[in-house]
Amino acid sequence: MKKLGTFQKLVALFVAGAILSLGYVVKSKAFTLVDLIVPAVQLGPSQELQVIVSNITDEALDSVTVNIVNAGGTVVMTKTFSLAANQTIPIVFQNGATAASYSANVTGGASTIVADVAVLGSNGEVDAALPYITPGTSLYTPALQFLGGQTGAVTITNPGSTATQYELVVIARAGTTAFTRSGGISAGQTLTFTFTHGAAYSPTDLRAVVTTTGGAVVSDIMAFDMTTNTVIAILPAVQ
User: 3-class SS at 6?
Assistant: First the structure.
C-alpha cells in the first residue's frame, strides 16, 4: 500500500473528535456481464489471495471461469475449470513486489455457484475474507473500528454496461458525517477512497453508505494493519 505522503490529494476532516486524511480516489476497470462479483481487495508485497468457488448443486458444472483483475483493469490471471457436484475449488494468486489491489469475477451460473475472496497472511492463514456481492442502488456497510493512525478504504465498483452517478457518505461512531464523495462512475470502473484516522485521536467506528442513480454498484469497507499496511478486515455493503 502506498504511504500517505504519496497520495495525490489529502484532505483533513475534523469530525466528532476524530481527524481523517482522505486519499484521492483511484480508478480502475472491472469486468462486466459476469455472474458473481467480488469487489477489490488490497494485497501487500508477495501476499496471496484465494478465490474460492463452490458448486451448490447436485449436478456437475462443465465450465466455471475466474478472472482476477488488477487496479488498471487488466486481467492478470484467468482460470477455467469444471466443478463436480457440491465441490469447492480454491484458485490461488500471488501479488508481485509492491502493494496492489485486485478484484475477482466469476462466470459459470449465478444460481449454481457461490464465491468469495480470502486474503492470506504470511503463514497461510486467512487474514480477511469477502463474499461475492449483489449490486444495488442503496448499499450499507456495517461499521469497522479504526484506531488513531489506522488506514482504511472504501471501494465502489460499477459492474453494469452504462455509467451511473454515485454518492458516498462515511459515518462516524456518533452518527456524524466523516466525509462524503459524489460523482460519476463509468461502466466497469472501480473507485477506491483511501483514508486515515488521525493518530492523535481516540478509536472510532466508521461505516459507508452508497447510493446511485442510473445503475447498481457493489461496495465494501476495509481496514489495514497499522504495521504491515495489509488488509485485516473487510465488510461488504448490503442492500
Answer: helix
Tens of pLDDT, residue by residue over 103-134, are 888 998 767 999 999 999 989 999 999 999 88
Question: What whole-number distance in Å separates Cα of residue 219 and Cα of residue 3?
Answer: 23
Give the separation between CA 138 and CA 7, rounded to whole angstroms.
29
Amino acid found at 34: V
The grid cell for 37 is: 462479483
pTM over 0.90: no
Closest CA to 66 of 117, 28, 133: 117
Cell of 120: 492470506
Specify which residues 182 forms β-bridges with. Answer: 167
Domain parsing of the chain, residue ranges: 4-236
CA 143/CA 205 separation, integer angstroms? 6
Contacting residues for 176 by C-beta, under 8 A, at least 6 apart: 15, 16
Report residue 9: phi and psi, to 5°: -150, 135
Instruction: Give CA angle at 209 (160, 47), nearest 5°.
Output: 70
- Strand partners for 186: none
Distance between first and last Cα of the chain = 29
List CB contacts of 117: < 8 A, sequence separation 6 or more.
Answer: 38, 41, 49, 50, 51, 52, 104, 129, 130
Nearest to 8 by CA among 23, 22, 28: 23
Report pLDDT digits (tens) over 199-237: 888 999 999 999 999 899 999 999 999 998 889 999 999
Q: How far is CA 179 from CA 150, 163, 172, 230, in A?
A: 16, 23, 9, 23
